[in-house]
Every structure is written in structure tokens, then in C-alpha cells.
Amino acid sequence: MTTTQVNQSNAYNDESALNDYFQSLSKMNATPLWTAMDKIVPPYPKPRAAPTAWAYSVMRPALMHAASIVGAEEAERRVLMLVNEAIAAPYTTDTIYAGLQIVLPGETAPAHRHRAFALRFIIEGTGGFTAIEGERIDMRRGDVVLTPSWQWHDHGNEGSDPVIWLDGLDLPLWQHIPINFVDQYTEPRYPSEPAPDSAARIQWKIVAQALDEQRIPHAIYQYHLPDGSHLSKTISAQAERVEAGHTTTTSCKVLSYIYHVYSGQGFSMIKTPNEATAKRLDWTEKDTFAVPAWSEVSHTCTMDSGAVYLFALNDRPMIESLTFLNKP
Ligand code: 1HN
């Protein structure tokens, strides 16, 4: 036996020799793959996110509190980030960030632009607007307003009540691909003209109509741009209608979602690949909840009459462009 062979077998039997070896590796900026393989390539998908819910009855007073301690202009964006209970900000799911933003009457959230894509779902208030690259777009409840990458945008409120909306951004992606940054405009507002027909706004009435035309207990509508493409290359959105008393068929998609309840009441059962049992999240109008990737999900409308209308951000464009929308 050569000296090299003896040393090799000793190294595998003697724990302290193994530790010495691992320590010597760390000085080389190296580490064994074989002790970390199952973490790096797990035997089943392992989203870090957990099902998490944010009740509007809790979040709205917290937003009003924020509005009492910092101005919109001073804050740049006065937002409460929705932090997944299992991952630090800016992760609401592993791939999607969401936050709740408030602008008081007379305030301006100043003009800036960034690489990240944003879309907003308007929750309450009248008189709010977003100016996007010179187009001034009114924000009305249920509407979606898009802010494509690198377009100047500022927000204002010319009404008499607070305007509150849900922001959805592709921020998690840019934690891994660090090419997102912000550019501040020289003035608080970028010059803009009213643009009532802007393609950057998708009105709720169009979406609700598309859902109601599907005469089935569980209707789904995928938001799209006029050319049929997703709302961005990274994140997009869908809306769903669930009839009174109905529970949707449990389905398990590759995607992750951030749901927002436009109207109605009910609950969702969400079983992530990490848990043996499903978690029940109860929700009502204006609540928000996160659904991790690869989760088994059903939604139940608990109302006696009418239907629940759900809005959801999703990461469909990213996953689809990687060709992994369907499971193997
Ligand atoms: C942003 O620009 C807005 O324009 C909201 O309203 C949230 C979170 C991170 C980075 C930029 C907005 C944001 C953001």
C-alpha cells in the first residue's frame, strides 16, 4: 500500500482528520458538495416561503399609523412590505414581492425609475393617480396599473381620502441578479398628461366581465397586454371567481402566487411540499395571502349567495420562459 492510499482511508474513518480536511478546504474557498447535495438539489421542490396571510383589518390601521409618522415624499414610497413568515423581506413568496402603499390627499410619491417591474392593484380611495412616462392614469378600485421597467413614475392623490393599493414587484429576482437600481427624477413629478385610454391600466370591469362570462363555478382569467403577452417578462396576474358555497378542485401548480381578495369571504387550504398537512387561511374582502410554489391549493367561498372575486400576482412569465410551467 502506498502512503497516499493509507492516508485516504484514514481520512474517511477518522473524524478529526475529516474535520481538519474540511477546514483546510474552507481556507481554499472550497467545500465538499457531497455533504450539501440534498440541500442544493432537494429530492422534491422546496419553496422557502410558507403560506402567510395579511388581514386588511390589521394592515389598514398600520398604514394609517405609517402615514402619521412619515410623509410620502420623505419616504419616497410609504409602503409596508408584506414579509413572508418564513423568509425575510423582500420575499413575499420566493419569486414575488408585495407591499401595501398609502398616499394621503395632496401628497406625492416622487418620480423615479428602476429596472424592476411593478404592477399595482388598487384597493381603496378615489382621486389617486400614477403618472407613467408622461401618461397620467387614474387609480380606481380593482384596476391594475402597470409600471414597466425603466419608466418614470410618480403617484399622487387629488381626492379627499387616503388611496391604498397593493404593489407587486419582481424584486426577489434582482436579489440574485444584481442589476436593478433606481434613478431619481430632478422634480417630484414627471410632466404628464391625462391618459384615460392608457394600455398601462387594466380596468376591473373588463376582468369581472371576462370572469362572469365563464358560466362555471370556478372561473380563471389571465391578465395580458393588448398583444396577448403576459403583463411583464417576470411577473403577471390572474383573477378568479368562485361561486357561493363552492370549493375549487385542489390543484398543484409550479407557480407561486400572492392572492388579494377583491370581494367576498372564504378560506384556502394550502399544502406546501414541505408540510404533511394543509394550512387553512381564512380571508375576507381586501385581505392578502401568499401561496408558495408547488403547493396543493383549494379555495372555498363560504358565502350563501353571490361569489368571491380573487386577484393574484403570479410568476408565470418567468417559469414559462424557462419552459418549466408543467411538471415532469
Ligand atoms: C417602487 O418604485 C414602488 O413606485 C413601490 O410605487 C414599491 C419597492 C421597491 C422598489 C421600488 C412604487 C417599491 C418600489
From TrEMBL:
Gene3D superfamilies: Jelly Rolls. InterPro entries: Cupin_2 (IPR013096), GDO-like (IPR047183), RmlC-like_jellyroll (IPR014710), RmlC_Cupin_sf (IPR011051). Coiled coil: none annotated. Transmembrane segments: none annotated. Keywords: Dioxygenase, Oxidoreductase. GO terms for molecular function: dioxygenase activity. Residues 100-167 form the Cupin type-2 domain. This is Cupin type-2 domain-containing protein. It comes from Trichoderma harzianum CBS 226.95. The lineage of its organism: Eukaryota, Fungi, Dikarya, Ascomycota, Pezizomycotina.
